[in-house]
Amino acid sequence: MTFDEIVRTRRSIRKFVADKTPPRELVDAVVQAGLEAPTGRNRQSSAIIRIDDKDLQSRIRKLNAEIMGPPPPGRLPDPFYLAPVILLVVANAAADTAVYDGSLAMGNMMLKAHELGLASCWIHRAREEMETPLGKEILERAGLEGEWIGVGHLALGYADMELPAPHPVREGRYRSI
Amino acid sequence: MTFDEIVRTRRSIRKFVADKTPPRELVDAVVQAGLEAPTGRNRQSSAIIRIDDKDLQSRIRKLNAEIMGPPPPGRLPDPFYLAPVILLVVANAAADTAVYDGSLAMGNMMLKAHELGLASCWIHRAREEMETPLGKEILERAGLEGEWIGVGHLALGYADMELPAPHPVREGRYRSI
Question: Which structural domain, as residue segments, surrounds residue A71?
Answer without folding.
Answer: 3-157
